[in-house]
Fold this sequence. Notes:
This protein has helices at 20-31, 61-75, 98-126, 147-167, 185-192, 198-204, 213-223, and strands spanning 11-15, 35-40, 52-55, 80-83, 129-134, 172-179, 235-238. It has 248 residues and is an alpha/beta fold. Strands 3-2-1-4-5-6-7 form a 7-stranded parallel sheet, sandwiched between helices. Strand 5 (129-134), helix 4 (147-167) and strand 6 (172-179) form a beta-alpha-beta unit. Nicotinamide-adenine-dinucleotide (NAD) binds next to helix 1, helix 3 and helix 5. It comes from Falsiroseomonas selenitidurans.
Amino acid sequence: MLSPTPxxxxxxxxxxxxxxxxxxxxxxxxxxxxxICVLDRDAVPEAPEGWLCRxxxxxxxxxxxxxxxxxxxxxxxxxxxxxxxxxSMNKPTTELTEAEWRQxxxxxxxGAFLTAQAAxxxxxxxxxxxxxxxxxxxxxxxxxxxxxxxxxxxxxxNLARALACEFGPAGVRVNAIAPGYxxxxxxxxxxxxxRLDGEALMRRSPQRRLVQPAEVAAMAxxxxxxxxxxxxxxxxxxxxxxxxxGAP
Length: 248
Ligand SMILES: NC(=O)c1ccc[n+]([C@@H]2O[C@H](COP(=O)([O-])OP(=O)(O)OC[C@H]3O[C@@H](n4cnc5c(N)ncnc54)[C@H](O)[C@@H]3O)[C@@H](O)[C@H]2O)c1
């Protein structure tokens, strides 16, 4: 039987893991005996001993490269790179500034690309590896005030498909996870600022609840396991049925 958990000692980079989904992913891999490197613009609170924590931006190629170089030095390379860092931009299009549009693309899409590129430069020569992206339900659907966010997440999903085709022959898999509304600072902040209606969210979700960060992390760990060896180029919904629901 194929194991549904990542092998112990797996060398994992997670971006945006100071909190939220990224932290849950890092914790879940660590619970499976993985070695963890975090790249985040913020410091990682209460990082467990042994984690490599690098402060920097995923939108800056030198910062991304420095995180992978730290893994090279400590552990001789990388097995899993999860390009998770990102943020939500909810604003009417006519009010969105050029700088806000560019920042959303820089972090959510260019940051994902730079992380994947640096990972591929190491994984392709070694002949194995997994690149993961955190997309969003907005990779597949639109929504008012989500022009920049939906454009970047659609881009991330198709980046995963393109890279899966390019890297597959060399033994490197690429997949994206598309979470629904996850209970994190990002969502709580949008609700608190009146940019999201929390009660309407619950009504719209077939499960009538937010997705938990650990549930997204569980999918990431599964994708890094031997059981997922043929899952490649997939965009996997972890959204409680949100995108399956055509009713209001
Ligand atoms: N929370 C949700 O409902 C939800 C749903 C779908 C997709 N997502 C996606 O999941 C990912 C994580 O979201 P979250 O909810 O955990 O958000 P969060 O705000 O709780 O955490 C995001 C983390 O990314 C870091 N970060 C932001 N910009 C960065 C940059 N330029 N360089 C390095 N680190 C940076 C932040 O410091 C933070 O630690 C994002 O890509 C987001 O779009 C979230």
